[in-house]
Every structure is written in structure tokens, then in C-alpha cells.
Amino acid sequence: MNSANSKDEDILVKAKKDFETIQNRVYGEISLLLKYAKLNAYDILKAKNPSYSEVVESLKKYLEIVELLTPIIKTPQHVIDDLNLVLDHFSELAKGIEEENIEMICEAIAKLDCNIRL
């Protein structure tokens, strides 16, 4: 019985490490896309594949998974709150790109710059 508990704990420790790795990659990708948005014109941003809007949809799915795993991995609430905030700002960026709205893009970039913690 003790051996089974030890294996469960080992699996949980590995899951937490894997989650942290994925979390770092997600923020790294967001950071790269943010830099890309700062450096390119609308037509280039709109042609990006996957699009910024598609990335938003992927981030929403990722956030759903994080929320489902929270009871198991014990994700701190501030991590979920940070992800929600980044998702909101990234959604604004995607919408600004789709609408070619420079003010919306600049505002979203400024908010993302302030909220991404690497």
C-alpha cells in the first residue's frame, strides 16, 4: 500500500513539473506572438497561420484544461486569474488585427506587456 501511494505521489510530482513546462511554453509562445504583432503590418498579421483568433481559441481550450486539472495539480488561483487576463488581452489583440484597428492593437499590446510574467 505504501508503494502505491509513493507511485501516485511520483506521478503527481511529474504531472506538476509537466504542467509548469507547458505553462512556460504557452507564455513563451504568447510572448513571441506579441513581439511579432509589434513588428509587422496588418496584412502580415492577418495572414499569420495560425491566425491570432485561432490562437485565442487554443488558449481558451488550454484554460479549460487548466481549470479541470486544478483539483488534482493544485493550480494556484493567481495562475488561473493571470491566464484569464492574458486571454482577455490577447483576444483584444486578435480582434484589433481582424478589424485593422491600430488603437485596439496598441492598447492590447500595452496590456499584454504589463501582464505577461516570464
Q: Mind explaining what this structure looks like?
A:
It is a single chain. The chain is an all-alpha fold and 118 residues long. It has one domain. It has helices at residues 2-39, 42-47, 52-73, 77-99, 102-115. α1 runs antiparallel to α3 (52-73), α3 runs antiparallel to α4 (77-99) and α4 (77-99) runs antiparallel to α5. The longest helix has 38 residues, at 2-39. The mean pLDDT is 89.
Brief overview:
With 118 residues, the chain is an all-alpha fold.
List keywords for this structure.
118 residues; elongated; mainly alpha
Domains, number: 1
Give the averaged pLDDT, no decimals: 89
What structural category arises from helix and sheet content? Answer: mainly alpha
- The percentage of residues in β strands lies in under 5%
Number of helices: 5
Helix content estimate: over 70%
**Radius of gyration, whole Å:** 17 Å
Distance between the termini: 40 Å
Helix and strand topology:
Elements: H1 2-39, H2 42-47, H3 52-73, H4 77-99, H5 102-115
Helix pairs in contact: 1-3, 3-4, 4-5
